[in-house]
Amino acid sequence: MRPLSEEAELRLQHGGPPGGRDVLVLDDGGAPAGYARLELGAPGSGDDAEAELVVAPAARGRGVGDTLLTRVEELAGDRPLRVWAHGDLPAATALATAHGYTRARVLLQMRRPLTDDDLEPRAALPADVRVAAYRPGRDGPAWLRVNARAFAAHPEQGSWTPEDLRLREAEPWFDPAGFLLAWRGDPDAGGTLLGSHWTKVHPPGDAGPDPVGEVYVLGIDPDAQGLGLGRALTDRGLAHLRARGLEQVLLYVEEDNLAAVRLYEGRGFSRYAVDISWRRVP
Region Disordered: start and end of each range (predicted)? Predict the structure, then answer.
């Protein structure tokens, strides 16, 4: 499991919106023993504060996690606080429950092999819909609009900004050929974006010893639901990843998103790991 989410890593590298804080615990020799990232959100928004924390393996069992969490709670003040635990590990559960947290969200990581014989696109597209690769500098506004509509109820994904998109386009893993957009009509002459499947490739050591593909973002505009685009775009994205020589693919999905879980199980995915969001109201 990666110790921090992609979002936390990006903000550690590039900074983030106002209100973010980085917390570091040093050992007696001055080396980092633990790190936490806290996001307070916009002032007056009423949103929960949110944090992630990680303890260096050599420093575990020494109270570093407790120190980090206590400091993050102090910085959050009287706001409800959510803390992500990557992996449903006994130590994380013990720390969270000792501080009065309860489980708020469960994010599943699902995986499937890409070595099967059933990965050629099977689901047909509507006759008036075509799939094309994303074009940086041209398709961003349309994608952000559909992303916001598709994930309107999602606390993170639905709030992406042009800066969030720009940061990911600048990442070494970004490949527009694996960012598939489903259009009705000509995108340069009033066409409508209906949905997309953005794939990603993790380098060796990131999600396993070998490169691993990811169903990074799969979103369908609410007005295009019922056309079979989710399955059609999933099939095409998986075929793209296999064509790159990858042997495994992962994705993340909320455990309570039963429709999405069923879609992915129907395409051969099974549960691999979980991330837990713990919540505490002061």
Answer: 1-21
| 261 annotated ligand-binding residue | yes
Lowest-confidence region among 70-84, 131-145, 153-167: 153-167
- Of all residues in the chain, the percent with pLDDT exceeding 70 is 96
Residue 1 has pLDDT above 70, yes or no: no
**CA-angle at 174, arms to 109 and 274, nearest 5°:** 10
- Note whether 240 and 54 are within 8 A (CB): no
Domains of the chain: 6-100 (3.40.630.30), 111-271 (3.40.630.30)
Q: Is 241 annotated as a binding residue?
A: no
264 assigned binding-site residue: no
pTM, two decimals, is: 0.88
**Ramachandran angles phi, psi of 192, nearest 5°:** -115, 130
Whether residue 22 is annotated as binding a ligand: the answer is yes
CA dist list (Å): 57 to 65, 80, 86, 235? 11, 29, 14, 39
Q: 218: annotated binding-site residue?
A: yes
Residue 178 labeled ligand binder:
no
Is residue 276 a known part of a binding site? no
Distance (Å, rounded) from C-alpha 232 to C-alpha 169?
A: 24
- Examine the pLDDT at 32 and tell me if it is beyond 70: yes
Longest CA–CA separation in the chain, Å = 66
Q: How far apart are CA 105 and CA 198, in angstroms?
A: 24
Look up residue 30 and give its amino acid.
G
